[in-house]
Every structure is written in C-alpha cells, then in structure tokens.
Specification:
The structure is a single chain. The chain is of the alpha/beta class. The protein has three domains: 1-62, 434 Repressor (Amino-terminal Domain); 69-171 and 306-335, Rossmann fold (3-Layer(aba) Sandwich), CATH 3.40.50; 173-303, Response regulator (Rossmann fold, 3-Layer(aba) Sandwich). It has twelve helices and twelve strands. The protein has helices at 18-25, 29-37, 44-56, 76-84, 87-101, 114-124, 141-148, 173-186, 201-214, 234-248, 260-272, 306-321, and strands at 69-74, 105-110, 130-136, 154-157, 167-171, 192-196, 226-228, 254-257, 282-287, 300-303, 330-333, 336-338. The strands form two sheets. Strands 2-1-3-4-5-11 form a six-stranded parallel beta sheet. It has a six-stranded mixed beta sheet with strand order 7-6-8-9-10-12, with helices on both faces. Helix 11 (260-272) links the parallel strand 8 (254-257) and strand 9 (282-287).
C-alpha cells in the first residue's frame, strides 16, 4: 500500500493521515507521532526523514510546543538594554506570551562568553525537552559561529546572521530609519544629524537607512552630520550634541536618534544651550517606548514592534523544530511613526 501524494494541483487528493506517513517512511504510526511532536526516542535522521515526508504530503504539523522548553540566551548587549530600557523587556514579554499560548516553558540564561555558550549548547544538545534556543541581541562573531554549530534549532532575536545560516527576527531597521528621514525631509529638513552608538548590526541598518535618504540623487554624505556616542546613556548624547555645536555651530535643523534614550539626552543638551525643540531643532527617536510621551516635549518616534518580535521568534522556532532541514529565514517586522510634538517644520531663515 502506498500513501496518497499531492495531486497535480499541489494539494492532497485526500486528507493525509499518520498511517499514510508511517507507510511512506516504513515505520510505525507511534514513531511518526513521536517524531512530529518532538518526543524522545526517535533517531535524528529518522525525524528529519519523517518531517520531509510530512511537508511533501502537506501534512499539518503540530501547532503547539506542549511540554517543550525554549531556552533564551541573553547576550551582554541584551542584558545591558534590559537594565536600562523597556525594549528587551517588551520583547521578552512577547516571547513569554506566545510560548504560553503554545504551552511551552521559557527559561532565560545570560551568556557572557563563547566558552559558556558552547557549554550550554552541549548540555542541551541531547535534551529532548528543549525545542530550541532564542539568542537575544547577539552580534559577537565568535558567539555567532558557536550558535551556527548548534544541534538544536536557533533563532536570533533582534539580530541577524550575515551568513544567513541562522534564522532571525528583527524590526525593519533600515526601512524604519528611511521612514524617519523621509518624514523629516517632508517637514523641510535637509541638514539632519544622525546620533547613534555604532557597532551592532541592527544599529548599522538604521545608519544605512538614514544614509540612503541623505545621499538620494547622488548627494555626497557630509560626514560631520553623523555623531557617534560611547554609550546609550542620555548624558552621553547631551554632551555629544553640545560638543558638536561648540565646534560647528547649529548647522543642522533636525536630529534623528538611533534610540529614545539618545533622543532624551539630545533634547536635554539642546535645552541647556537655550535651543528649543522643535522651534530651533526637531528631534526624532527610534524605539517608540511609552515613556517618550512624557518627555518635554513629547517625543516623535519610530515605534518598534517589540512584543511582536518576541512572538514571531517563538513561532519561527516552532516551525524550525518541526522541520530542521528548512532553510534559514530572516524575518523583518514593519515599524510605524508616532507623531508627537518634538518635530516641526524647518525654521525659516531670518
């Protein structure tokens, strides 16, 4: 007896059952059930064979991770952000809420070194209760190399793999910065500073989005419009803006900040010099944290879909756990502009 494959239209000629998969793979129904549910006791190569056949036959894979564990490995950058802002907190809440819906448990562990990471990966490699790993804000190349060798499915959260060997979920950082720059340009601004702490790939995408619009039409990029700070703290941003004005004057009309915390510092620095926002200089942040509404003035910002990032990462990990042979995927979620009072039309020349 042979199971019924998909018809010419690409759809099954009838509903595929477990016994069809069992017959096609030459195994018992119980083995197929264990392989598709992630239960222990099935050889990895046989699990992959059964999963491939299930996809070939368009068999509906289990939609939950009932009884499974998801391990979140938080990088030093993620832990730093968690202590300072709500971005990582909101992503974590999205992970936990979606895991609960899928009846999976979540465990979080900080990773401070590649050696610790490798040890953790080795410990969970043969643990059938661990469905996969979520790496939170991972940029370190050595740590990425170790993650690529994982025997468990891996999803990078708020990051990406430049080699596309690991799946990832992140906000559409480049498009978001493009949207922000376009918004300021529609208000008449042409001299727009970009204030950031360079280094992370996600932040580099924001820089690229700003640069794309600033150089539209072949305009040469003025390197003096980019300010890099040593830390994400508001005090660092305030000092950087004051130093920039002391050296070059107010030769700009708007500042695009790579985070809300830098935007807060920027506004503080401008205020200390007697410059008004948005009367003299418009300021736009990126994160869209709730506290931005209570800045003075309330902060116009690009809102990152933080909870949705966490939820999408869990869904992606679920898909990978039921199809380890699937190619890596990079998912970017759209961001939106929140208009408040920190941006206005460019100040008219006297």
């Amino acid at each position: 007896m042979h199971s019924t494959p998909p018809g010419k239209s690409g759809k099954p000629s009838r509903r595929i059952r477990l016994d069809d998969l069992a017959t096609a793979c030459g195994v018992s129904i119980a083995t197929v059930s264990r392989a598709l549910s992630g239960a222990p006791g099935v050889r990895p190569e046989l699990v992959e064979k059964i999963q491939r056949k299930a996809q070939e036959f368009r068999y509906a894979l289990p939609s939950t991770l009932s009884g499974q564990r998801l391990l979140i490995l938080a990088s030093p950058a993620a832990m730093e952000d968690y202590a300072r802002s709500q971005f990582t907190l909101n992503v974590m809440q999205g992970i936990e809420e979606q895991a609960k819906l899928l009846r999976a448990a979540v465990m979080t562990q900080p990773i401070t070194s590649t050696e610790q990471e490798r040890q953790t990966l080795a410990e969970v490699a043969n643990d059938p209760s661990v469905a996969g790993l979520l790496f939170l804000t991972l940029d370190d190349e050595d740590m990425l190399t170790a993650a690529r060798a994982s025997r468990k499915p891996v999803v990078l959260v708020n990051g990406d793999d430049p080699l596309m060997q690991l799946s990832s979920v992140a906000p559409s950082n480049r498009a978001a910065a493009t949207m922000a720059t376009d918004y300021l340009m529609r208000l008449g601004h042409r001299r727009i500073l970009f204030l950031s702490r360079r280094g992370r790939r996600t932040i580099e995408r924001r820089f690229e989005g700003w640069r794309d619009r600033m150089t539209l039409g072949g305009v040469a990029l003025d390197a003096g419009l980019q300010i890099d700070v040593a830390d994400w703290l508001p005090d660092c941003a305030a000092q950087a803006v004051k130093d920039r004005i002391q050296r070059h004057g107010v030769d700009f009309s708007a500042v695009l900040c790579a985070s809300d915390s830098l935007a807060m510092g920027c506004m503080q620095g401008l205020a200390s010099l007697g410059l008004s926002v948005p009367g003299d200089v418009s300021v736009l942040g990126m994160d869209g944290l709730a506290q931005g509404a209570f800045f003075t003035p309330p902060l116009t910002a690009i809102e990152m879909p933080m909870r949705h990032i966490g939820a999408a990462a869990v869904d992606l990990l679920r898909d990978l756990s039921f199809g380890a042979h699937m190619p890596a995927r990079r998912i970017e979620l759209a961001c939106r502009l929140i208009e408040r009072q920190s941006c206005g039309p460019v100040k008219a020349s006297p």
